[in-house]
Each structure stands twice: as structure tokens, then as C-alpha cells.
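Sanity check. The docking grid for glutamine depends on where the pocket ends up, so I'm generating a full predicted complex first rather than guessing from homology. Inputs follow.
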Amino acid sequence: MTTLSAALRQAQAQGLDRLDAQLLLLHALGHASHDRAWLLAHDTDALPVATERRFAPLVARRAAGEPLAYITGQREFFGLDLEVSPSVLNPRPDTEILVEWALAYLPLSPEPPMAVLDLGTGSGAIALALKAQRPGAQVHAIDQSEAALAVARRNATRLGLDIRLSQGNWLEGSSERYHLIVANPPYVADADPHLPALAHEPLQALTAGAEGLDDLRAIIASAPAHLHPGGRLLLEHGHDQATRVRQLLHTAGFADIASRRDLAGIERCSGGRLSGSSPVSIQKMPAVALA
Ligand code: GLN
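Predicted complex below; grid placement will be based on this.
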């Protein structure tokens, strides 16, 4: 007879860390991931053979490098339980910093409501986190991938969060304007040595040209035409791209350009406010300001 604790030890012997082993065992047992206390209290219980049969292949997949979220099909992000699949990027805790930053620009109940866009929404993580925190905001999320949109749609429905989802290539073909645009676009260089470690995630959500800047460049260039005067663009980017992204924002006419650090202390998000020199604000600027 195998006990729960023996099964956990066996999984750790195969290279899993303790937390992953516990979460996979809870999944195999049909318990929620927050039930770790139950697991500890029942560690001498016998593991039913059927559960053992379910658990073994899960352990093998994790040992082969598959992200836990794809094995369990779920991931917690900003307090929300999200469905994830290999069609979407596995939401990272670092991206919660982008959400925190965006929330700083979203008052609790502004009149009229603020229009927010999440570009390349994937599982819907950023858009849904913003909607959960700011129910009054009009949140729109775009993704190129229909498979990703299906995941985002299921998440929105299950969480009861009313966001608008549409298919598109960044802002192409849209004439809408927003108060805030956020994105965690693909930003890994095509030949980045870290890519093999990300082999389970959709390449389309990861890579963006030789320097990993192609999508960031496209978004920054097109964003001013889709922001209200004074609107903000906030972007996640690679560990070595902050200087380049700030330059691109400057060239596109953004002001108040700043960066935020991730949990490892690396500049991971940059953004700015659409400056007064944008076509929209020039018309509004009093003549004296131009003298
Ligand atoms: N942060 C991810 C990684 O480097 C990449 C995410 C992205 O390209 N947007 O693992």
C-alpha cells in the first residue's frame, strides 16, 4: 500500500519540488489547490490505486519540464483562478506588476467610465484582473489567436467578468480610442537561448524578431492614434529591453516615460503618457503655449 506521503516522496525523488508534487497530488485526488492543509493532515492515508495511476503520468510530465499550469489546466493570477492551456502563455507573477501599475491609473469609479485595452490577452489574465478590480471600467481585450480567445472567453464567463473580446492583429483596422492600453506582447528574441526552456508555451506568444522588439515596436508606433489625449500605454518587455522601449516611447511622442521592476529587481515594464504634442492635443493647446 502506498500512502500519500510516500507518493509525494516518490515524486520528489523524480525531481519535482515539494510544492509541485503536492499540487499535482491534490489535482489527482480531485481536491482544490488550496487544500494543502488537508494533504498534510492525511499524509498517512492510503493512496487509492486509481489515484496513483492518475498521479504517475502527471509527475512524469512535470519532470519532463511541462509547466504545472498546463498539467492542471489552471493558474492563479492576481487572485483569480484562471483556466490555461498550451494555446496561451502561462501567466507569470511578474505580470501582476503590470496590473498593479495599470490600476494606479484607473480611479475606482470615474465618470465617464474609462476605456481600457489589453493587447495580446492570451488567457485574459491582465484584462480580467483589471475588470475584477475596477468593475466600472470598459475592458476590451484583443488577441490574434482564436484558440487563446476561446480560453479567455471561458475565463470571463466562469468568473462572471464582463469584458469584450475580439480577434485582431494588435491595433490593425481599429479606429477606437482608449484611456489606457496595456500589453504583455511576445518579446523574446528568435534565437534566445532560453527558448528551449519555454518549449511548452506557444511560440507565437513568445518570440518577436531578431531582437524580440518587433511587436513592442508595432504596438508603440500605433498606440498614439488609439489613445485619448493624456492616455497611457504600459508594456511588459524583456530583461534587457527597458532602454530601447523607453526610446521607442519617446520617439512615438510619449511623455512621463518610466519603468517598473519585476520581482527579481529587473526593469520589466515601461510606459508613458501620450504627450501634449500628439495631434489631438495640439488642436486643444492654447496659442500662448505655442509662442
Ligand atoms: N516572460 C516570459 C519569459 O521570458 C516571456 C513572455 C513574453 O514574451 N511576453 O519567460
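Relevant for the grid: Strands lie at 74-77, 80-83, 115-119, 138-143, 164-167, 178-183, 227-236, 254-261, 267-274.
Also worth noting: The CA atoms of residues 45 and 154 lie 36 Å apart.
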